[in-house]
From TrEMBL:
PANTHER family: GLUTAMATE 5-KINASE (PTHR43654), ISOPENTENYL PHOSPHATE KINASE (PTHR43654:SF1). Belongs to the glutamate 5-kinase family. GO terms for cellular component: cytosol. The keyword Nucleotide-binding applies. It comes from Stenotrophomonas rhizophila. This is Glutamate 5-kinase. The gene is proB. Its EC number is 2.7.2.11. ATP binds at residues 23, 180-181, 222-228.
């Protein structure tokens, strides 16, 4: 029997999902006076465990390293050294942050540190995605954070809300959960305006909705409600819904484990599949192409298969791993463009493994990015 939850937000259903990103901010992990506290993290960890046991997959995006480091060296923040001090505190606090999460799980917790440069570089983006997917396959729990120890002002992601949205897109998540320190989105800041109304459901992130968000929230974090809506907009553009909820309320978090949301649900602009296919169709092409035989062409068209090296007969151009290129078939009438997709290998690598079995890739190249030249999720027929 569902229990009532003391919340100004009415109950609604959580979107159906198999894979999710859970973003946990510093305000939920920071202890009074510095360091980290398990007080709110425990309930969120129980939410993760319950869903993993139900066969779902979760990636945590967690802040808190700087707060943890501040407790170790409380005098580290000196005038004139803000960035260097933050980087040092992050380095000191990362072990404590991962240790906090590991204490709640019997499964291994994996630390993944990312920078803006990792995510704008297509090859690094693919490498990060492959790593996260493999960690999930192995049954580990990835905990992602910005790599503050090497980030600089112009390269910083700026806040982990937007990082969480990028990670959700990276792993093709179905939903982005953002645990915050208030109940959800209001028409105004409820801490300052007693007339603020709870906004339960956001079909579209309009200018008016964005205007409801204020600036930064707590002193422990870097992002307020505005960055959370920015993240929801970013996730929504690739078909991922966002749920905002109060991570400090044990009742709200328990209800979430039962598929009941007391918070704000922000709908995606379109379905995840449609958004992905649109991007694949319209992303800029690099010069060059992968040439395939008739068997591979039939498998792509008729079976929705991935492109394997055995069906490749050659490559044109000098493209790199991660580039968007065409897939062509040579016919008596000339080359026919069948599809376009993101290549897992460079043109020179593809020439070396063309016609080979997937199991031969590593023996030929000395490394292996997987058995597919282009995975079906990264490919669209034309």
């Amino acid at each position: 029997m569902n229990q009532s939850v003391p919340s100004p937000f009415t109950e609604q259903a959580v979107p159906q999902w198999k894979r999710a990103v859970l973003k946990v901010g510093s305000s939920l992990l920071a202890a009074d006076g510095g360091g980290l506290s398990p007080r709110h993290a425990l309930g969120l960890a129980q939410f993760v465990s319950a869903n993993v046991l139900a066969g779902r997959e979760v990636v945590i995006v967690s802040s808190g390293a700087v707060a943890a480091g501040r407790a170790i060296v409380p005098r580290a923040l000196e005038a004139g050294a803000a960035m260097a001090a933050r980087q040092a505190l992050a380095a000191l606090g990362q072990a404590q942050l991962i240790g906090l999460w590991q204490r709640f799980f019997e499964r291994p917790v994996a630390q993944v540190l990312l920078t803006h440069d990792d995510l704008r570089n297509r090859r690094r983006y693919l490498n990060a995605r492959a790593t996260l997917n493999e960690l999930l396959r192995l049954g580990a729990l990835p905990v992602v954070n910005e790599n503050d120890t090497v980030s600089v002002d112009e390269l910083k992601l700026g806040d982990n809300d937007n990082l969480a949205a990028t990670v959700a897109a990276l792993i093709d998540a179905d939903v982005l959960f953002i645990a915050t320190d208030i109940d959800g989105l209001y028409s105004a800041d409820p801490r300052r305006d007693p007339q603020a109304r709870p906004i339960h459901d956001v079909p579209e992130l309009t200018v008016e909705v964005l205007a409801m968000a204020g600036g930064a929230g707590s002193g422990a974090g870097t992002g307020g409600m505005h960055t959370k809506l920015e993240a929801a907009a970013k996730a929504g553009r690739v078909g991922i819904e966002t749920c905002l909820f109060n991570g400090r309320s044990a009742e709200v978090v328990r209800a979430l484990s039962q598929g009941r949301l007391f918070g704000t649900r922000i709908h995606a602009a379109q379905t995840r599949v449609a958004a992905r296919k649109y991007w694949l169709r319209h992303a800029p092409l690099e010069p060059g192409a992968i040439l395939v035989d008739s068997g591979a062409a039939d498998a792509l068209r008729g079976k929705g298969a991935s492109l394997l090296p055995g069906g490749v007969v050659g490559a044109e151009g000098d493209f790199r791993r991660g580039d968007m290129i065409e897939i062509r078939q040579r016919t008596e009438a000339g080359e026919v463009c069948l599809a376009r997709g993101v290549s897992q290998y460079s043109a020179s690598d593809i020439r070396r493994v063309a016609g080979r079995h997937s199991r031969d890739i590593e023996s030929v190249l000395g490394y292996n990015y997987g058995g597919n030249v282009i995975h079906r999720d990264d490919l669209v027929l034309l």
